[in-house]
Amino acid sequence: MASGLHKSEVSNPVLRWIDARLPVVTMMQKEYGTFPTPRNFNYFWNFGALAMVNLLIMIVTGIFLSMHYTAHVHYAFDSVERIMRDVNYGWLLRYVHANGASMFFIVVYIHIWRGLYYGSYKAPRELLWMLGVVIFLLMMATAFMGYVLPWGQMSFWGATVITNLFSALPLIGQDIVVWLWGGFSVDNPTLNRFFSLHYLLPFVIFGVVFLHVAALHITGSNNPLGIDPKGPQDTLPFHPYYTAKDSVGLVAYFAFFAILVFFFPNMLGHPDNYIPANPLVTPAHIVPEWYFLPFYAILRAVPDKLGGVVLMFASIAILFVLPWLDTSPVRSMRFRPLARPFLFTWLVSFFVLLYCGGMPAEEPYVTISRVATAYYFLYFLVILPLLGRLERPLPLPESIARPVLRGGGPLPAGAVGKPMEKA
Amino acid sequence: MPKGFDMTFSLKALAVALGLAAGAALAPAPALAAGEAVKLPDVRFSFNGIFGHFDRASAQRGFQVYQEVCANCHAMHQLSYRNLREIGLSDAEVRGIAATVQIVDGPNDEGQMFERPGRPSDRFRKPFANEKAARAANNGAYPPDLSVIVKARENGAAYLYALLTGYEDPPADVTLMEGMHYNKYFAGHQIAMAAPLNEGQVEFHDGTQASVEQLARDVTQFLAWAAEPELEQRKAMGVKIVLFLTILGGLVYAVKRKVWADVH
């Protein structure tokens, strides 16, 4: 073998020729074939792979939709209806894309919850976690701009409300809004740039996902016990074990997705978005898509506009510093008897905010939103930092292999009988 | 969805909100559009449910109602006459229907616009040249385009049927604004459209009695088809795909068990 070439072990001569010069086959084998993965994943660990699949579905359907879509205020609405009626399987493309956005957020919210519950954000995975938060932010921007494109009533008024948030910034706020709009109201220039950015951002997301996965393959995956693998007895090669397990989750995900697309395609959308945008008629209630409702509730919980905007952005920005706010060295909530109920209460506050965000800004929803918002921040800023010092965690298992293997001796209370732990 | 959710904040309210939040995770947005929630009459349509399909005869009668009643004010500009073949009209019938309207076409070789009889490829003719003309003819109100009206209203078809049959005399304590009509299902109860359907208003070709309920039912069937012409194909495909995924899921799970058998 000539010097300077990668020493490939691929048997197929053509593949070996390529692999010696560009070791993609070796890389795939290393990262997705033999990659040592903790043996005790539960089904929560499916959701990273599901998010990846979801992103690809969105990009593919989006590319085909954009071939038929017209980004102009006079034609956008009708071009979407034309896709629904005259483009071959256009209704399928559009419903998969529209519901795919909801699926993406469902998957990513569960993925984030997995990280919160099992402490996946803690050292050494801080940067991995932060890249994930970047992806989440990019997803929100992309989804928001995508919702504007059909140019229905909620598209227009959602865009108006959200872009107007920037006007709360002192001094430069109004100028920024005009700059974002490309004019003095949400209009054709706004629609055009939103379409451009909506097409661009998914590829940026793809890039950050690559970094997210690259960082993951340096630190390796966390696991439900939150302890590090201590040797080969604690891990399994990714293939076939986790390719098989991810496939189970993937089929379940497709089934859920299919039920949404084929039987309830408009359930998660707002009927008003089938009314063409009209700048002269304001809808009775302007609501964002369901996945923004928790943050919308935080925005509205604050009586001051700037305060609301700041708090809304802070509710996501706080995730960036979470690895340093949580002072406990124990990752998995299974071994944190005090922190666990507080985290579940945080989850409750998230759902309460989601509910209140969809309700009109009146009592009792405003007060409920305020209480839930207060707890949302209290958990990160006060409870987690304090608990690291006050809490006495349960004893951690010696290794991953021992509590997983049958008859592996006495187990910590939290390590068995989890509903998701079928594996 | 709960309106008039009149409760002061308490732990109980929080618990209730929690329960609702679970539902809200699935269907949060639709909670908002309707005014005071009046219970809609319980009507079932052939297109409801996972095996839903359109009742061709009803949709054809509904088209007749649209054409003879609604089309005087409401456009349906997303539809072409050729689409009517999908509800079972023959080529000749579609051609005949299209030919009854005059369409402005052009310019011709002399640069002049001209009128010609409609063709199946033409979009449904609009009753008014523009929104201003529509408002001028309707006491300032704008009759909305009905192409996707079933998708553009909360509870779609059920709401539409309710609205069309929901006209009644206003209660004693309600004073109607000038030119408005009382409808118990319309948000705010005051609607500019006068009761559009009257008994015997349309003479159906197939001899069906044209009661108000029948007219409303048929036109709703037609509008549901117009809004979601893909519905039958979509649901049929969905049934097959869900069945396929169920079987595939079983197989994949069996494979996974086999692969993992030596680990447990």
Automatic annotation (TrEMBL), chain A:
Any idea where the Cytochrome b/b6 C-terminal region profile domain is?
228-398
Domain called Cytochrome b/b6 N-terminal region profile: residue spans? 14-225
- Cofactor: how and how many bound: Binds 2 heme groups non-covalently.
Q: Where in the cell is it found?
A: Membrane
Identify the PANTHER family for this entry.
CYTOCHROME B
Assembly and binders: The main subunits of complex b-c1 are: cytochrome b, cytochrome c1 and the Rieske protein.
Put simply, this protein is called Cytochrome b
TrEMBL record, chain B:
Q: Where does heme c bind?
A: C70, C73, H74, M193
As cofactor, the record names: heme c
Q: What is its main location?
A: membrane
Q: How is the cofactor bound?
A: Binds 1 heme c group covalently per subunit.
Q: Where is the protein found, in the record's own terms?
A: Membrane
Membrane spanning stretches:
237-255
Matching entries from InterPro entries are given as:
Cyt_c-like_dom, Cyt_c-like_dom_sf, Cyt_c1, Cyt_c1_TM_anchor_C
User: Cellular component per GO?
Assistant: membrane
Tell me, what is one Gene Ontology molecular-function annotation carried by this entry? electron transfer activity
Q: Keywords, A to Z?
A: Electron transport, Heme, Iron, Membrane, Metal-binding, Respiratory chain, Signal, Transmembrane, Transmembrane helix, Transport
- Every copy of the Cytochrome c domain together lies at 57-164
N-terminal signal peptide: 1-33
Family to which this protein belongs? Belongs to the cytochrome c family.
- Protein name, UniProt field: Cytochrome c1
- Annotated organism of origin: Roseicella aerolata
Q: What high-level taxonomic lineage is stated for the organism?
A: Bacteria, Pseudomonadati, Pseudomonadota, Alphaproteobacteria, Acetobacterales
